Amino acid sequence: MAGIDSGVESIGPLLRRLRRENGRTQQELAESLSARRGHPLEQAAVSRWENEERLPDPISRALLAEEFGVPEQELKRAVQLARRLRRQHQREEPVDEENDVERRDFISLSAGAGLAAIRPSSLLGAGRRLGSDVPGQLAQRTARLRRLDDFMGGGDTYRLYVGELAETTRLVAEGVYTEGVGQQLRGIIAEQAQLAGWAAYDAGLYGEARRHYMTALAASKTAEDRSLEGNSLAFLAYLEWAVGGGSGIAYAQAGLAAVETGRDPVVRALLADRLAWQYATSGHAREAGYALSLAEEAIHSRADGPVPDWAYWVDRDEILIMTGRCWTELHRPLRAIPALEDALGRYDDTRARDKALYLSWLASAYFDAGEIEHAAAITSRVMDLSAGLASTRPAGRTRMMVRRLEPHRALPLVGSVLERARA
């Protein structure tokens, strides 16, 4: 694809030409860059750059400039051209936002189909007895409800989650069961209270969120489930940060301590991840980096048993996302951008709320790196994905980016994004 600026190549063709002129394969280039940056870069990353599926971030551009002996500014201009070409293509073929929203709604309805057909109260047997199969049935219902959060905001799911928690609590209060079954049922209540708390938090209902999290903490302790207890504490830490009443570090530290001797590395990765966030948002870079290293080590460890369903979404991409978010909060864009872009390249638009949120941190990181127009373009994409979401958080992140962009309104792209935000 020829550049529209005279004498400037778009980044994909430029990198392909430079690599071939140096007699390198993509794998050889990836290995050389890995040695320069001190951690692995896969051949697929080079391929994505050359095909312009992804664009090299500032630190990668600096390494490529050293590798090929070309001015870094030349690579920066090539990336800027690729972005302009991409925006031009998007204007010619606009994103079908209505289709995206409809697709999310269809997935959400499919995930929840059938939940209303059998209520928890129907699981009571003769003499109000709850058999050993009841906790498993309730766990399956809870798992299906949990998947709705992938596609819907807390404003849509909160009442559903609260209703399910109330029914399960009533069932446990009225039923007759063995001590072992009771312990499992209290674990289910802890999981459902965490769901209700998360939906309340996502909808901006912070008082209700705290009440549900405290219920979850008490139930997890009664169930003697240290992992669930640690997760309840991590939720409280996140809430403490959100309401601005102080740092959630103490809660997050207690959450990780609850599972340090446990067997489940995925849960440890999640709780170390949450502790890193508390450190980063409190300005403690060294401690945040250490907690992120704990999360990275844990997520690559072999699990001795099945991962709890409430942690099904925790994977290497989640750790990468949190790594990028933490370094963005600490204003270290050269560390933040590669992690965020790596993970976001695998995010489907149906996960609109999460993708919008994580893109907002990418926009902030690019702003810190001096890439103002690219930060504005990403903010516009955040607005696209946020359309129709019953969540307060993407809108809050968008307002933050709009405030940061305001002094640069003279730039055409920034001006158009600010106009769109006002509208």
Quick structural overview:
The chain is mainly alpha-helical and 423 residues long. The chain is built from 20 helices and no strands.
Describe the structure.
The chain has 423 residues and is mainly α. Among the domains are: 82 residues, Orthogonal Bundle (434 Repressor (Amino-terminal Domain)), CATH 1.10.260.40; 109 residues. It is built from 20 helices and no strands. The radius of gyration is 24 Å and the shape is elongated.
Q: Name the overall outline.
A: elongated
- Helix/strand class: mainly alpha
Number of helices: 20
Q: Compute the number of strand runs.
A: 0
Rg over alpha carbons: 24 Å
Largest beta-sheet details: none
Q: List the helices and strands in order.
A: HHHHHHHHHHHHHHHHHHHH
Which strand-content bin applies to the residues?
under 5%
| Unreliable stretches | 1-6, 106-114
Mean pLDDT: 87
The percent of residues in helical segments reads over 70%
Question: Helices, strands, pairings?
Answer:
Elements (H helix, E strand, L loop, with lengths): L10 H11 L4 H12 L5 H9 L6 H11 L3 H21 L4 H16 L21 H15 L5 H21 L4 H24 L3 H17 L3 H18 L5 H11 L5 H17 L3 H15 L16 H14 L3 H12 L7 H17 L3 H15 L6 H13 L6 H11 L1
Helix pairs in contact: 1-3, 2-3, 2-4, 6-7, 7-9, 8-9, 9-10, 9-11, 10-11, 11-12, 11-13, 12-13, 13-14, 13-15, 14-15, 15-16, 15-17, 16-17, 17-18, 17-19, 18-19, 18-20, 19-20
Supply the key terms.
423 residues, mainly alpha, 434 Repressor (Amino-terminal Domain), elongated
